Structures are given as C-alpha cells and as structure tokens.
Amino acid sequence: MIKVENLSKSFGSLKVLQGVNAEIKKGECVSIIGPSGAGKSVFLYCLNGLEKCDGGSIYINDDNICDKKTDINKIRLKMGMVYQNFNLFSHLSVIENIILAPVMVKKISREKAIETADKLLETVCLFDKKHSYPDELSGGQRQRIAIARALAMEPEIMLFDEPTSALDPAMSGEVLAVIRNLAKLGYTMVIVTHEMNFAKEISDRVFFMNEKSIYESGSPGDIFNDPKKPATIAFIRKLKTFNYKVSSHSFDLIEMSSRLKLFCVKYNIEAKKIDYTNLAIEELITYILNHCYDKKQTPEIDITVEFGDIDKKIEIEVVHDGKTLNPFDKISYTPDETETKSDTDNTDDTDDMGIFIISNISSGISFSGENGINRFKIKI
Amino acid sequence: MNFFNTVYESAYNNLIAGDSYLYILSGLKTTVIITLAGLFAGSVLGALLCLMQYSESKILRFISKTYIVIVRGTPILLLLMLLFYVVFAKSRMDAIYIAIIAFGLNGASHIAEIMKSALESVDSGQVMAARALGFTKFGAFYNITLPQACEFARPVYQNAVINLIQWTSVVGYITIADLTRVINNIGARTADPFFVIFIGILIYLGLAYAAYLIFKMTERKKRVRR
To answer: CB-based contact (8 Å) between B133 and chain A?
Structure first.
C-alpha cells in the first residue's frame, strides 16, 4: 500500500530525513515513536505530500508522489490526516467542517454528504454538537471531529500526527478510543505518537525513528521489551525512568512532585507508594541541601526513579557531589533503638525525623560515597 | 418665545433661504461620490499592493513596500495639492477626479496593510488541513483563508472607511464644493454659522452610522449558542 524508498528531506542546509525505507501493508497499523526532532512528523507529512521530498520515492499503491507529474491532489483523497492541534476550520460549524471537502472537492451532493456526516458524528458520539462551532468544543471533542472530517472523504489510509499530545489524559482517552475503533475496522494507519502504552497496544508494527531515518522497526513486543540497537535501548529505558536534576537551593519542589506523580500514574503505581516515593525524595533532598552543601555552593543532585518490572518495587537513586555523609548510619531500622538514639542526641530534630521517616517507609537503603560522588539507593 | 424665534430664523436663513438645502444636498452628493469612488479605487489598488507583497519577485515586493511607506506617511492634503497644482496642473481634468485619485492612492496604502495583516492572522494549519483534504491551493484560499481573513479585516476596514469619510472634508482646498465647503460657504453668507455647522456634523455622523450599518449587515449571522 505504501512503499518508501531511500527518502530524503532537508530544510535548507538541515537534513531531516535521510535514506528512509519502509513498507506498510494494507490494513496494517504502524506507530512511529522516537525522540523529538527525529523527523517523525516530517516523515508523515511527506507521506501525503504536504512536505515535498527531496530525494527517493514514496509509492502510494502504484503512484510515486515524489514524482512531479503525479497529481498529488488526487492521491491525497485516499489519505486522511489528523493533526496535533486539530486544525478545524474555525469559521465553520461542525457539520460544515465535515461536509466541506466532500461537497467542494468530491462534488457529492449536500444532502448525501450530510447523511454520511451524521453517521460519522454518531460513531464519534458527537451528533449533539452538529451545529456547534469548534471554539465551543473541548480539545478531545475537537480531535474527534477532526477524525470524522478526515473519514468523511472515505480515505484508505489514515495518518495521525501526535493526535493526543495537545490533550490532557482524560481527553486523550476519548480520542484513543476512537482510533482504536478505526484499527478494528481495518484502516491502514500510520500514527506518530508519544503515548507508548497506546502504541504498544494498538500497532502491528512500531518504527523507532532516530538519526534521520527509521533506526529500528519491529513488532511492539520486540521494540518495547527487547530492543536490539543501542539508541532504541536507551530510549526505551528512559521511558521507564523518571529523572530530575536539582541545581539550586530553592528548587521547584512542586514541579518535581507533580512530574513524579505523572510518571507513577503511567505505571499504575498505587497511591500509597506514590506518596511514599514523593516523601522519601523530598526528605532526602532537604537533608542533602541542609547538610552536604553550604549555602553558597551550587548543589548538583540527580534523582532517578525506576519502576522494577519483576519485584514491583520503586527504586530511587539520588546522586550528589556534596559532602559525604550517610545519615542512615546513625539510625538502625528497629523503631525502639531509634527512639533511644534520638533521646541521646536530639540536635537536629526535624532532619532526623525525615531520615527516620525514610528508613521506616523504605524496604532497603544503600549508600556509597567515593571520589566526592555520593550515591543513595532506596527501595520502596 | 424669543428663543424659538431665533432658532427658526436661523434655520430659515441657513437652510431654506436661497435654496441652501439643495446646495447642502449637492455637497453631500460630492462627498459620497468621492468616498465611494476613492474607497473602490483604494481597495482595488490595495489588493494589488497586497498581492505584490506575496510575489516571488523581489522588485515587486520592494515597490509595494516602498509605496506603502511613502504614501501612508504623506498627509492626504499635501498629496491632494501635489496632484492638483503640479501633476495635473495643465490637464483640464475635473478636480473631483483628482480627489478620487488622491484618496484612492492614499487609501490603497492603508488597505493593503489591513489585507495583509488579516491574511496573516489566518491559521496556516487550517490551510494545510484543507490541502490534505484534497483542496487545490486556490480552493483552500477561497474556502478557508478568504472568509476568515474577511472576518479579521472587517472592524479595521470599517474604521478605515469612516476615517476616509472624514478626510474627504479637506477637498475644499482644491476648489471642490463638498459638504464641508458648502457648509463653510453658507455660514459665511449668513454670518450665523452655528446652526449650519451643527447640521453638517449631524450629516457626517449619519454617514458614519450608515457605514456602520452596512458593515453590520455583512457580518456573519450570529451563531446560535447551544
């Protein structure tokens, strides 16, 4: 259905795509993942000629759209495109948005176009909004209308350019449900996405794009669980970890914990564990900032959180370059002993309290300090 | 009763005596003609200048930009005088045509800018979406860009029209008997100008209001909110 041979594309002197080869069969659902700037969206735009390719060829069925003689407008009719920011026609109502192209381009009669549009609106559950205008709809609703608009042209191929990245999780759920449905109906689909779980679940094949081309491709199982090439491995690993850098005494605690929570929610970690993780990091960072750095020093603390697939435990790693101090030395894990300890030397009550809390909620702590690099590992 | 007598007398002297009202009407007609013809010429030339800005040719873009900078920065009265006393000094062209040319030239520089900024306000993503749906370049422009650009341009364009109406009041300088000039003449004759000036202001207000109503009529019907 789609065959890409040695495609290259550059913007001015900047090469974006180079030597891209791919084949997508009829009815196949392909997800494209990869770091930002890898050329995922550009590749998608090339597929329907919105970006002209500089070299190589793209065959849609048997027509090469990189050939200037090909009537690109005709081939585009076979392809529906859905964008990150919806791009609904803001001066037209929902129904007008959907029937505009069928009536003006395909020359279908208005009545017939409205009939089809009504059915499509029902499938995306937005029949009630028929006469609303785009700015009266939520993001999720807009995107579903955009999908209906693309489907109204009865395309054979659907291209999605990050369809949910402008939406919050609840709204992207609505949109993903609609796309999932399309996959069941057997559309040929190419989806550029950052929703890894969605890509894993819906696609027949995954393309990992990196370094201006398709770096690795394979079944979702291959790419997500058993990637072969180094950049893929690094990318997939990074997906599974949370990173944060503290580089100031007054770092943005709220930002860090909300990002941490987002990460944990993605892995379905239970609420209690999320709170513990958050608490442990907060207490430890506070301790390090107070004891290992003096006020004039710029702290450099790296936090990594990883969710272990096997033991279902959260691993926190905190690395800093301040004074080597292990607060957990002073504290043993049995509560009685700690009480006696804090009776004898209650110099820094609050900080000791934090350390005490960490040791209580964690199921394993290790510390190493060498060459000025201190490393805490906490399991929760 | 004295007061009413004075008002009546003033109205009679300024409006009725010597068929002043007919004189005022002919002045109004001149003002309306200059405004409409100037607006038309300005819009056509403005669209052309705007088109030139999107041209591939550097020279055309340069000409358009330079024209806009120079003409927009020149007072309309000086432009009028330049045309009347210098450029067309030896021709026997009716002064009213010269005024139309002057307002056309001046209006074009403003209208070109209005059009350009309206076109630029249209979200390029929507044009892209239309292209992806199979519209040709022109089809996308006609169905998506143009209607939205018109919406953006309407209030600014309306403003320009009302401005133009008021600026036509300077054509008296080149011997044209427009509304302002007529009012001035009548006031001078009766030596009691208050009443007629007041009437003149009302007429200009009426013109501005008429322009407003016409624009209001072309506005897209208000959406029915859910």
So the answer is: yes
What's the pLDDT score for residue A121? 93
| Cβ contact B132–A76 (<8 Å) | yes
Distance from CA of A85 to the nearest CA of B (A): 8
The whole-angstrom separation of Cα B130 and Cα B120 is 17
**Nearest-by-Cβ selection for A87 from B126, B220, B223:** B126
Helix axes A169-184, A139-151, angle to 10 degrees: 20
CA nearest neighbour of A28 among A202, A161, A167? A202
- Please give the ipTM for the structure prediction: 0.76
Is any Cβ of chain B less than 8 angstroms from the Cβ of A72?
no
Calculate mean pLDDT across residues A77-106: 92
pTM value > 0.90: no
Helix (H) / strand (E) containing A331? none
Q: What size, in residues, is chain A?
A: 380
Domain extents in chain B: 2-225
**Which amino acid does the sequence have at A297?**
Q
Q: Which CATH architecture has domain B2-225?
A: Orthogonal Bundle (1.10)
Residue type, A116: T
In degrees and rounded to multiples of 5, residue A216 shows phi and psi of: -150, 140
Instruction: Residue window 34-93, chain B: list those with CB within 8 Å of chain A.
Output: none
SS3 at position B212: helix
pLDDT in tens, A296-307: 888 888 888 887
**Long-range contacts, stretch A180-185, CB < 8 angstroms, 24+ apart:** A181/A123, A182/A147, A182/A151, A182/A158, A183/A29
